Amino acid sequence: MLPQVLADIETRHQALARAVSGQVEGHLRSAGRELSAVAEYLQHRGDQPAPFRFEPILDAHAGSGEVFAAIYVVDATNTVSALGLPPGSASNAGMGWKSTCRA
Questions:
Q1: Three-state SS for 46?
Q2: Which residues contact 41 (CB under 8 A, 6 or more apart)?
Q3: pTM of the predicted protein model
Q4: For residues 62 and 44, what is the distance between their CA atoms, to the nearest angstrom?
Q5: pLDDT tens-digit map of 59-95
Q6: Is the separation of the CB atoms in 54 and 43 below 8 Å?
Q7: What is the predicted pLDDT for the residue at 75?
Q8: What pairs with residue 89 in β-bridges?
Q9: Which residues does residue 40 pair with via DSSP β-bridges, in sequence order?
Q10: pLDDT digits (tens, 9 = 90+) for 18-67
Q11: Ramachandran bin of 16, using left for φ above 0, alpha for ψ from -120 to 50, beta for the remaining angles
């Protein structure tokens, strides 16, 4: 009887692990699609400096911070050119950030 109980527990754990991993995968795919849509939108913006044209939309997508704690735009040298943060974060509270940050 004990081997059967252990096998049942193992089967239940595997089913739970599959369910949780499916939920995590769905959440990450959704976040990836959102970032792809934001990136596509930002590529079609004007010739303003990056922080002025990117940060409002990045802040909006950072939203409550539930999905993204921050969204960074980096250039080919890994220099941060724009940063989106949820409302009430350090940058959005007037503390600012340095454009010389390295990713």
A1: coil
A2: 57
A3: 0.60
A4: 20
A5: 888 877 678 888 888 878 888 888 888 877 755 544 4
A6: no
A7: 79
A8: none
A9: none
A10: 999 999 999 899 889 988 888 888 777 666 666 677 788 888 888 776 78
A11: alpha
Q: Cα dihedral sign for 73, 68, 35, 28?
A: positive
Residue 96 has pLDDT above 50, yes or no: yes
DSSP3 helix / strand / coil % (the chain, rounded to 5):
55, 10, 35
Q: What's residue 46's pLDDT?
A: 62
State how far the Cα of 22 lies from the Cα of 38, in Å rounded to an integer. 24
Give the phi and the psi of residue 88 in degrees, each rounded to 5. Answer: 85, -5
Taking each helix axis from N to C terminus, what angle separates 2-43 and 50-62, rounded to the nearest 10 degrees? 150
Tell me how far CA of residue 97 lies from CA of 56, 77, 82, in angstroms.
Answer: 15, 18, 9
Coil, strand or helix: which one is 11? helix
Which tokens hold the place of 88?
């009430």
